[in-house]
Amino acid sequence: MSRFFKAGSDSESETESSEDDEIIQQRPSAAPVQSRTFQFSDDEDDSRRIVRSAKDKRFDEMTNIIQQMKNHKQIKDMANVLNDFEALIKAADKAKKVIQEEGVPRFFIRCLFDLEEYANECWEDKEWRKSISKNNSKSFTSLRQKLKKYIREKYEKEVNDYKENPDQGDDDKRDETPAPQDEESEDEVDTSVKAPVKPKLPAPPVIKKQLPKSMDDDDDDDDDIDWDSSDDSVESDIDDEQFDTGKLTAEYFLKKSDSGTSKKEKKRKEPKQMKLEETDEEGDWEEVKGGAPLIMERPKMFGKDQEINVDAVLKKLYEITSARGKKGTDRNEQIELLKELREIAETNNLGLGIDVKLYFNIIGAIFDYNPNTLTSMRNDVWESCLSYLQTLLNILIDHPEVNVGEHIKEDDENLTEAPLYVRGCFLTLVEKMDEEFTKMLQSCDAHSTEYVERLQDERQVCDILEKTLRYLEIKGTTLEISRIYLKRIEHLYYKFDTSCVYTGDNEPKKEGTSEQTMDKLCKFLYTSETPDRLRTRAILCHIYHHALHNRWFQARDLMLMSHLQDNIGHSDIPTQLLYNRTLVQLGLCAFRQGNIRDAHNALVDIQSSNRAKELLAQGLLPNRQNERTPEQEKIEKRRLFPYHMHINLELLECVYLVSAMLLEIPFMAAHEMDVRRRMISKNFHHVMKMSERQTLIGPPESMREHVVAASKSMKTGDWKACKNFIINDKMNAKVWDLFFQPDKVRDMITVKIQEESLRTYLFTYSNVYDTLSLHTLAEMFELDMSVVHRIISKMIINEELMASLAEPTQTVIMHRTEPSRLQSLALQLSDKFLTLVENNERILEVKQGIYPFQNKRDRNDRQPGTSAAFQHHTQGVVEGEGYGPPTSKSVTNNQHWNRRNNKNYSRESRNY
Amino acid sequence: MATRKQRAPVQYVQLDGLVVLKLIKHCQEEGAGGTDLVQGVLLGLVVDNRLEITNCFPFPRHSEDQEDFNEVQYQMEMMRNLRHVNIDHLHVGWYQSTYFGTFINRPLIDSQYNYQDSIEESVVLIYDPLKTTQGFLSVKAYRLTPAMMKFHSENDFTTENITKHGMTFDKMFEEIPVVTKNSHLVNSLLCNLEEKDKEADKFNFLDLATSSMLQKNLRQLMECVDATTMDINKYLNCQRQIMRQQQAKQQYLQKRQQDNAMRAQRGEPPLPEEDLNKLFKPLQSPPRLDCLLYSGQIDNYCQQISSFSTQSLGKLFMAESLQNDGQSN
């Protein structure tokens, strides 16, 4: 590389700045170079389909536009130049992020600079301006303005830099031919473009030689060595030529070399394409059958004159199956071969034994098809698998003389004579099929039609399961029966069967409901000798099924009888997940039945962690503490339940929050004065607190906001508002309509809200009443007199309400023994002082640590004294509030109250 | 120091009626009914053993974002202007309103220290607007005791220093009796007004605003107790740490001694002495001033509560006897 080349290679900028005639002279020479290169790089794009970095992609886009612009500039097509410029700006905008990281690309600045120069030039050329069409001149003026504005706004500094130091760009120029290609591929090229020190120039080929290799590596995972090497040679050829073009020698412009490269390109492209197609066909990343194909003689299964008998077929079968699992075996091919073999066997009437054996092998091969346990089957494979299973199953059922089993050894197989013995376990195949089915459902988007299509196979799967079940009931062992029973159960338990919902009427029991089926299957599993895991799962499914169909008591009793709560932690994770699901379903059932506390207790564990989604295996949550490894994630993904088995999470949360509200609000009202606020539901408090933190509380939108608003109105005893917040169109659509018989649930909720509001009201406002008429209360809360009576009596018995009922007048007489605020404050204060004193004494202990015995005695002496003093103190406050000579009644009340308080304390102290 | 010895310390504070009215007005207008604190400057003179406070002016309220506001400049300006109209312009302290007697805290101590440091006779007037609305004008004058001044000047609030100074919570402030004095003209005006006011017989002194007042006091007392407990806990933890460190130190020293003894037996030179303080950095014990302040505050609350309940009890007895009278009649 000498100076000569630098001078000889006419850079774009030089051309622009030089005289007009020069441009005309030199442009044609520059143009082909450019266009060729770009074609070339385009080709590359098509053939490779590689994943490129964002930077490469963006810069490529920009260079393409710049190239087009250059062409348009030559013919002075201003309209198009303007278009190009706008496109370029857009592209630059898109590449903003990349630019921020990498700095403004040189070629872009150069282009801007050139364009500016070009515009100025054209502007000077008044004659030309007059001559051009109106459209063109309009475009030109607007281009000029836009360009100026753009440069001024964004890249003024860079362009000025470039202006001052254009020779750097000139150096660039020389490299320009390879440059675009470089930019699309690797970072290091950047340096070679930007710092083209002369002696360095021979370096690029080396870089480029490595380049395609690395790309290839990206291209297919199982890097094919054969291809790589050939690629390499071709590529290096090209590179050499390519690099020659950098010299801009005369030969370069000859057409020959041009076409030569492109030809080679094409050659390269073709096999690549083929390969791509192949891999597409496979639908998977797997070993492409490479150089030495193992089964080339596929069309000829047997020699023409070879006698086809059982032995020959078996031999062939072994031949085929022995290739199984080996590297380089085409699994597709294998399946096809086996199918063909079976057909041959069938046409030659080799008997049932062979047929069954071959079926086993085919299905096995199909399951083998995916080397990876994570990917699911393709649809067509799956369908064929199902149909094969069906046929095999039919054969087995139709011909009870065929004995199948894993226990039969290969040597003991009898494929020809009457009691046929074939090795192979149909149950295992069925289980595998079920697994595959789940996997397929997991792999497709739950909201697509594809999912629905797949789900339609559920019927078929169940069909197979049922048939197998019947078959095994006759032929199988207990264990096998248990396994198939469990499979059947697992396909049954989550499905809602309207025919077996307990309605309370004395309807004649229908036959064949899923309840009965479940009952039968599960009871078999409970009684027979089965592994614990199967039994546990069966129980859980059974409970789930009961709960789903509103059979609350059966479900609860079964749950309690099973004692699963105690040892579920020791079981495997899928079973634990099933337990979670069951628990949730149990909670929902309890809610529907109006057992609010049970519902709350069942749901609290799942809901309080805020990870319901994860606990129910309905989706992965981002893990905050530690990122899970890909393997972990894969494992977790495999555990997820398919979408159709999901439990609605919003429903779950709503039910939880509503039950928490019904429990917590009266509780809060009752324990307003307590020193330490205990809470029933932390989650509920959290939700409430979150809403309190908001500066502006609008009308409720989400489910949560509805519940919060309802809770707030319940606090004031406004049951109507509360009900309207919980039960309205929005909530119906979101939550309640998801229940079976939503009206019943809504009625239940309404009644509960009325009752709990009444309780809250009494707790909150009892201190402002002397007496309260039951009638008024009943009217206020639209409840029956008897209900109100019941609730109040209960509260009095539980010592929640200090009052008595006056039967003749139907009124509640308040006793006013609740501690006033002042009293409770005083109590709190005394409590605090106690801790203070204790702490103080501890300081003393530290100080006097040397005499522990003396100190201890000291403390013991002091302790009762202080506590007695405080007791006295509290007593004083309590009685001092009496405002007058204590009547006998108030004394008793005081005593009573004190007792209650003492009880509270003792309870509290137990809690500590 | 010299001046203090020469002049007898201020025995009582003589408040001008004007000051009281201005104070009340300021608090009423800007203190949002007593909940916000207001502050201002007291002007007056020391005469013999009394401090006469004859005028005051409020600190203007300014929000946090008005950084450029210069308080000192404002005060100087104000005093200069007052001087022009021939009003006492000597700075003798400051006043502050309080909410339920919450005033014993760090900022008050600090600023009072600064005042007393520069103007020896200065006092702080604490005005309780809530009590005033109840009918008891409550203006109290406080100043830091000389012991407290000394203690504060050392700026070392460790336990040792406290014991050294014998500081306790009740020795921090001393209250100075306040006398309100009006000029004769004003007195005669008041007499005039009294005569004109015919409807002054409506007493509501039997009003028992007991519960809310007591409740609030109790609440604040509780807060204070909580704070004290926290403080004590902190102190306790620190004590424990120190103990632990001491033990470690002892162990280390013993080991060192043993090693040295062994070495001496073997005839080797003893191990070089290392700086123990580097190995065991002396732990900073938490400052105890806050605890003192909390205690003072608790004391203050307790006094308030007891005085309040005493009054209430008195009222109750009065009410009882009145009631009995009414019944017997």
Automatic annotation (TrEMBL), chain A:
Keyword Chloroplast set for record: no
Quaternary assembly: Component of the eukaryotic translation initiation factor 3 (eIF-3) complex.
Localization: Cytoplasm
Biased composition (Acidic residues): 11-23, 181-190, 216-243
Stored Pfam families: eIF-3c_N (PF05470), EIF3CL_C (PF26569), PCI (PF01399)
Keyword terms: Cytoplasm, Initiation factor, Protein biosynthesis
The protein's name in its UniProt record: Eukaryotic translation initiation factor 3 subunit C
Lineage, uppermost ranks: Eukaryota, Metazoa, Spiralia, Lophotrochozoa, Mollusca
GO terms of molecular function: RNA binding; translation initiation factor activity; translation initiation factor binding
GO biological process: formation of cytoplasmic translation initiation complex
Residue span, PCI domain: 643-819
Automatic annotation (TrEMBL), chain B:
GO BP field: formation of cytoplasmic translation initiation complex
Family matches, as Pfam families: eIF3h_C, JAB
Signal sequence interval, chain numbering: none
Ion transport in keyword set: no
Alphabetical keyword list: Cytoplasm, Initiation factor, Protein biosynthesis
Listed GO CC annotations: eukaryotic 43S preinitiation complex; eukaryotic 48S preinitiation complex; eukaryotic translation initiation factor 3 complex
Family, per entry: Belongs to the eIF-3 subunit H family.
Protein purpose: Component of the eukaryotic translation initiation factor 3 (eIF-3) complex, which is involved in protein synthesis of a specialized repertoire of mRNAs and, together with other initiation factors, stimulates binding of mRNA and methionyl-tRNAi to the 40S ribosome. The eIF-3 complex specifically targets and initiates translation of a subset of mRNAs involved in cell proliferation.
Protein name: Eukaryotic translation initiation factor 3 subunit H
Protein source organism: Patella caerulea
Lineage: Eukaryota, Metazoa, Spiralia, Lophotrochozoa, Mollusca
